[in-house]
Amino acid sequence: MENIGVKEVILAVVTLNGNQPASGVPVFYARDEAERDRIAAHLARILSGMVHDLENGSYIIVRH
Amino acid sequence: MQDYLVVVSVGLAMGTLGRLYLLRVDYRQYPSYPQGYMVHLALGFIAAFLGAVAIPALVAKEYTAVTFLALAAQQFREIRDMERESLKHIEDTELVPRGAAYVEDIAKAFESRNYLAMLTALVTSAAVQFFKNSVLGIFTGGALILLLSYFTRRKRIQDIATVRPAKIHFQGSILCIENIKVMNVGHPDSRKIFIEKGLAVMIEPKDDDARATLANIGQRQAIAHDVAALLGVKRDVNEVDFMPLVRIELDTGRVGLVIVPMEKDMESLIEAVKMVPVLESARRKPLKSKAGRSASD
């Protein structure tokens, strides 16, 4: 399992969608896109994760 | 007694020289410090010594001495373990890891080179013993070193594939190299950096054997590691977006590499990819089998 395998973990969700429920994973609600990008950048740095765009207004921070 | 001394010392010298020669060839990857050289030279010396005394021992009817050769072979297996262990331990400190296959490949190469030193010493001392001429022995040893290093030479990516520049573009948030979808890059700033500073190449296998080899994950990781080591990589422990990635195109078996290097230089990137060794564990030859051949047309 050194080279392949499921080891990705969603660390946080950053979203514009206020209806996105928080369940099991921390959700950060952003007011606009600029704030979302900024929060995502901070979280990625802090958590050593990568930002992925789900293209529905939500970003997820994933540890690979 | 004097005769034996000449036989053994010529054999010993040629064996050690052979080890030194191969250490020089391999300087690019590892080891990089005199300590590392010292370890391998010392072991090469011991191997050469064992090889060199075998023939005189046989001539002197000391048959038990010859059995030590077998014992020695056992001992030298440890070298592979030693290399593997030490490379594995430092794997965590590499920004772009070598991958298990590459580590195994390097470890194996180090083990085999000790046998090479032993064999060179053995053949050289045999030549000196039978021809009673040290110059002839030295020539035999030198020829053997060149011959063996020629045959144990590795293939490189350029032997099995062509490498050409490729274009990076984004489909929404998905990073693509031509039509290979590599990964989802969420942050707009990261996307901008990929477009501005990223480089990509396409590695096109020359035949089905090459395609199977390039598909190996270990081989692809080795490419990523070598390229990152040679060109530098814009990446840190908490900056994971710019990990060099090597991904396959499922339809054709072509392989795309994307990297954000320190030095944005396409020429050197292509050169670096071409020089990556083909790993032994990754080498596949489906075309050698009937099923593979008939599947290929």
From TrEMBL, chain A:
Pfam families listed in its UniProt record: YIEGIA_cap (PF21835)
Protein name: Uncharacterized protein
Lineage of the species this protein comes from: Bacteria, Bacillati, Bacillota, Clostridia, Thermosediminibacterales
TrEMBL record, chain B:
InterPro entries, alphabetized: YIEGIA
Keyword Transmembrane helix appears in the UniProt entry: yes
Parts of the chain that traverse the membrane: 6-25, 37-59, 130-151
UniProtKB keywords: Membrane, Transmembrane, Transmembrane helix
Name assigned to this protein: YIEGIA protein
Organism of this sequence: Thermosediminibacter litoriperuensis
